[in-house]
Structure formats: structure tokens, C-alpha cells
Specification:
- The structure is a single chain.
- This protein has two domains: 180 residues, MFS general substrate transporter like domains (Growth Hormone, Chain: A); 189 residues, Growth Hormone, Chain: A.
- Helices cover 77% and strands 0% of the residues.
- It contains 19 helices and no strands.
- α5 runs antiparallel to α6 and α7 runs antiparallel to α13.
């Protein structure tokens, strides 16, 4: 019997939200909150870059260095905190992540130099980088397998909610109190730790496996395990698949506003309206993708969305000047980014319990680091061959990712795997 089936039978839970136990619901909310506050912290500094630059008398080059170092620290944080979670637990690691980036945000109140700003944002990056992998792992190990896809999707849609919260702080609170006090108030997510401590149980699957490792007195080195003969193929395929997936997303969406304003002649107001429509579509797409994952399987759901995303990209570029269809296409262009909702479950279900957070954190963050070359590539291709050709590349990468995902293993009933890559 699979671990997922065991969890379902033991808790008496089926595939409906109303049938989930309060502990399972609190687990989903905890993962959602961790990722929401991750987005909140990351996007708040982006939205307040101009006043920070003015307040600290920084140049554009200096502030770009701060952001680059934060991204680098985030990648390192994902690698480190994934392993930490495999040693000390998913719940504990999530709390550590939240405290790291929340306290770092609060300490922004005292920043008066570039050096101190860099140190704080790099420390924050360590917490930000580890949050996604640990949150998705906690969901995967705590939610019944026939609801896991939807639970992962719910966790992922908290990113746009966190972005909205950052906008409220930037456009409502900041004008009245300044950026220092705004960041001091932004330390409030640290209080969320008390909710997790009181209402969220640690992963029972992790506790059982950790006890086995301790009792057997085995030397457990997660990073060595994900590169052994059992996992090396899985690890590499996930990294490459995620890399192409991130290329397909960030290459397109990073430059879409610039393309609309500079190349198509739209004003900022109309561009913002278009982006809002696409994000409404994305919210719906995440939830729908999570639902169909649980009905028809992870790979077919994610692969289908990636291919349809590519088609929507090509249609958008072909019809960008046609107002009769463009809003519909933009909605579906955002909708099919719902493929992101599937990767949390796919990755978690391809690594065993004792290395799940390590595998998730490593593959996601290595791919994220590699994806940083995507936006500059778009600029190079746009200069050489035009923007339409450049922005069609993400569609091609999406199709490649949609094919690569079929190399990965999909367990029976989408259950988690145990040691040796076999269904537990």
C-alpha cells in the first residue's frame, strides 16, 4: 500500500476539502502562508526600490547588485534549507525560513549603508530560497494523494496574493510612514510561526523515516543520495525540465511590458490592464491544473498546459494588435501558466522521504539559478532577429519541457515514492 493511501485510510480522508481533517487543512494553510509571505517580502523591496535608492544615495548599478546577491543567496538557501528539512523536519525548517526573512525585513529599519543592506538581503535570501521546496514537501507528505495536486495548487496561488499584499504596503502604508517603518511593520509574518507551532503537525512520514535512519545508525547524506544510481536520472531530468519551464515563463513575462510599450506603442495604463487580465487567468489556471492532476495524473496535466501555453504564446504574438481577441488570449496565456502548480507534486513524488526536501530544493533552485540567463538571451535575440522571434522562444522551450516531463516516473495513484524509487 502506498504512503499516500495509508495517509488517506488512517485519517479517513477522501478527495474533497470537506473530508480533510483540521490538521491537514492547517498544513495547507501553513504552506500557503509561508509562500505568501515569501512573495510579500520579495516583491516589497522591488516595489520600494526607488525610495530605498534615494534614502541611501545608491546608484542603479549598486541596487542591481543588491538584487543579484539576494537571488544568489536565495538559490543557496534553497539548497541548504532543503537538506536542513531532511534532518530536522519540514515544519521546523519552514518556521526557520519565515523567521529569517521576516526579521531581516524588520531590520531594514536600521539600514544606513550599502554594506548593511547587502548583508540583510542576502540573509533574507537564505530564508526565501528554502520556502517553496519545504512548503511543497510538507503538503506532499501530509495531504492524501487524491487531493495532493489541488493542495499544491492552493499553496502556489498564494504567490499573487503575497504580491498584492506587498502592493498594499507599498502604495497605502509607505506614503504615510516612509520605507523604513514600512519594512519594520513588514516583520509581522514572524507571528505566523506561532500559528504553525500550535496547529500544524510535523510530517508523520518524515518522523517515521527519520526514526528508521537513527535506529539503524546509517550515515545519511541527502546530497550524495540524490546523485546515486537510483536518483541520478531523476535529479538531472527534473533540473533540465524545470530549467526549460522557467525559461518559458521568465523569458516571456519579464519582457512583456517592455514589448507592449516600446514595440507595440501601448501606454502603461493599458499594459497594466492586460497584465491584470492575464493574472486573473493565472489564478484560475493554477487551481484548475491542481484539480485535473488529481483526476488524470500529474504528467498529462502539466504537459498539456505547457503545450497549450506555447500555442497561446504564438497566438498572442500573431494577434497582439487585434483587440477583438487579445483579452481572451491574454486570459488563457495566464491560465496555462498553471503548469507551475503541477511541478510541486511531480518533484515530491519522485524523491523518497529521507531526501525529498533536499531533492526538491536542489532541483528547483539549480533550475532557478540557470534561468537567470533567460532575460539577457531575449534581448540578444530581439536585437538580432526582432522581438516577435525572441518572444516565440519561450513557447518553444515550453514544448520541450512538456515532452521532457514524460521521462519522469508517475507513481500509481500519484503516491509518494519510498527508498529505492519504488512506491511505498
Amino acid at each position: 500500500m502506498s504512503n499516500g493511501s495509508m495517509a488517506r485510510n488512517r485519517n479517513g480522508e477522501s478527495g474533497a476539502w470537506s473530508d480533510l481533517s483540521s490538521a491537514t487543512k492547517n498544513t495547507i494553510f501553513a504552506a500557503m502562508g509561508g509562500w505568501l509571505f515569501d512573495a510579500f517580502d520579495y516583491m516589497l523591496i522591488i516595489m520600494l526600490l526607488v525610495p530605498i535608492m534615494k534614502g541611501l544615495h545608491l546608484t542603479l548599478l549598486q541596487i542591481s547588485m543588491v538584487l543579484a546577491l539576494q537571488i544568489a543567496a536565495s538559490a543557496a538557501g534553497g539548497l541548504i534549507m532543503g537538506t536542513v528539512a531532511d534532518y530536522i523536519g519540514r515544519k521546523t525548517a519552514i518556521n526557520i525560513n519565515i523567521l529569517i526573512y521576516s526579521i531581516s525585513a524588520g531590520l531594514m529599519f536600521f539600514v544606513h549603508s550599502l554594506g548593511f543592506l547587502i548583508v540583510l538581503r542576502m540573509i533574507a535570501g537564505l530564508g526565501l530560497g528554502g520556502q517553496w521546496g519545504n512548503s511543497m514537501t510538507l503538503i506532499a507528505e501530509s495531504v492524501p494523494d487524491n487531493y495532493r495536486g489541488r493542495a499544491v495548487a492552493i499553496g502556489n496561488v498564494s504567490w499573487p496574493i503575497g504580491t498584492l499584499l506587498a502592493a498594499v504596503f507599498a502604495f497605502v502604508i509607505y506614503p504615510h510612514v516612509g520605507w523604513r517603518v514600512t519594512f519594520a511593520i513588514a516583520a509581522f509574518p514572524a507571528l505566523f510561526v506561532f500559528y504553525i507551532l500550535k496547529f500544524v503537525p510535523e510530517s508523520a512520514m518524515w518522523k517515521e523515516k527519520r526514526a528508521e535512519i537513527i535506529n539503524s545508525r546509517k550515515t545519511h547524506v541527502p546530497y550524495l543520495t540524490i546523485f546515486n544510481k537510483t536518483y541520478i536520472k531523476t535529479t538531472l531530468v527534473i533540473v533540465v525540465t524545470m530549467m526549460f519551464t522557467m525559461f518559458s515563463y521568465w523569458m516571456f513575462w519579464t519582457w512583456l511590458p517592455t514589448y507592449l510599450i516600446k514595440e507595440q506603442g501601448f501606454n502603461l495604463s493599458k499594459t497594466s490592464t492586460w497584465l491584470i487580465v492575464s493574472q486573473i487567468g493565472a489564478f484560475c489556471g493554477y487551481l484548475f491544473n491542481g484539480w485535473i492532476q488529481d483526476k488524470i495524473g500529474r504528467r498529462v496535466a502539466v504537459s498539456s498546459f505547457l503545450v497549450l501555453y506555447a500555442i497561446a504564446t504564438f497566438l498572442f504574438l500573431a494577434l497582439v494588435g487585434n483587440y477583438s481577441y487579445i483579452y481572451i488570449i491574454l486570459f488563457f496565456l495566464g491560465f496555462f501558466t498553471g503548469f507551475y502548480a503541477g511541478f510541486g507534486a511531480v518533484i515530491c513524488e519522485n524523491f523518497a522521504t529521507e531526501v525529498r526536501s533536499t531533492g526538491t530544493g536542489f532541483t528547483y533552485n539549480i533550475a532557478r539559478g540557470a534561468s537567470l540567463v533567460g532575460p539577457p538571451v531575449i534581448v540578444y535575440v530581439a536585437t538580432a532577429m526582432g522581438w516577435n522571434v525572441a518572444l516565440a522562444l519561450p513557447g518553444v522551450f515550453a514544448i520541450v519541457a512538456g515532452l521532457l516531463i514524460w521521462i519522469l516516473r508517475e507513481t500509481k495513484c500519484c503516491s509518494l515514492v519510498d527508498v529505492g524509487g519504488e512506491s511505498a
